[in-house]
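We include the entry.

. . .
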Amino acid sequence: MAGEEQPTGSEAFAGRRAIVTGGLSGIGAATTALLRSRGAEVAVLDRGPDADVAVDVRDAESVDAAVAAAAERLGGAADVLVASAGIYAQLAGATAHG
C-alpha cells in the first residue's frame, strides 16, 4: 500500500505463499531458494520426483489440479506466482544448431 513501509531483506516475503513452476532446476530453483530465504512458504511445481506438487505445464488440467493442490499445501491461495517452467519442443528436422 502507498505510504506503508515494506519489509526488506530476510523478511521481504514473510507470510507470503508462493508457487514456482520449474522450481527444481535453473532459474526456478534459484528463485525458490531466494523466496524461502526471504520468508516465503513455497510450493514447487515440477515434473521431477522431488517436486512438492507434480505438474505437466503443457496440460491445462494438470496445471489446474496442481495449483489447487499447491493452495491446499500452502494453506491458502498463492500471493506470488513464478512461471519458470520451460517447454522444449523439437521441430521436425531441426538440429541442436538450428
Summary: The chain has a mean pLDDT of 88. The first helix runs from residue 26 to 37. The two ends are 48 Å apart (CA to CA).
